[in-house]
């Protein structure tokens, strides 16, 4: 399933959003065609400003990922990484429930010699062969990650799960 989400800002600069779902067999081009037809109609229905539109797709969770959290998992304990992309711009990622064994003792820095961290870094920086080339993460400008420059453990507040 695809989800098309619209971010809206009101006259007091408060933000809200709404979404529409589309069947998974639709293409991005088909959804963009719908969006092109819908946008002028939406403009007549709202008084706020559209500050962003995102399109996401649900995918099957690989069975190699955990389905149950470990008792000591904490969403406020995160792996925070900083990177430089090929275009020279920087970016970051923040992954919740960091395994504390990946942190250097007496420090907040990530153990760069840990085998899992080496593989993690390689997959982010280099990617994997898929189709006709390599597939790897990019920054928000679409430029591939060139180098992870820093990885640390950080603690941040979370939202409750209810």
Low-confidence stretches: none
Q: Please give the domain count.
A: 2
Share of residues in helices: 10-25%
- Total number of helical segments? 2
Global shape: globular
Mean pLDDT level: 91
Main beta-sheet annotation: 3 strands, antiparallel
Pattern of helices and strands: EEHEEEHEEE
Query: Which sequence of strands runs across the widest sheet?
Result: 2-1-3
Structural class: alpha+beta
Q: Give the termini separation.
A: 24 Å
Tally of strands: 8
Q: In percent, how much strand structure appears in the residues?
A: 35-45%
- Radius of gyration, CA atoms, in whole angstroms: 20 Å
Explain this structure:
There is one protein chain. The protein is of the alpha+beta class and 162 residues long. It folds into two domains: 2-57, no CATH class; 77-155, no CATH class. Helix content is 18%, strand content 36%. The chain has two helices and eight strands, in the order ββαβββαβββ. It has a three-stranded antiparallel beta sheet, with no helix packed on it. Strands 5-4-8 form a three-stranded antiparallel beta sheet, with helices on one face. Strands 6-7 form a two-stranded antiparallel ribbon. Strand 6 (128-130) and strand 7 form a beta hairpin. 6% of the residues are buried.
Condensed summary:
With 162 residues, the protein is of the alpha+beta class. Helices cover 18% and strands 36% of the residues. The protein folds into two domains: 56 residues, no CATH class; 79 residues, no CATH class.
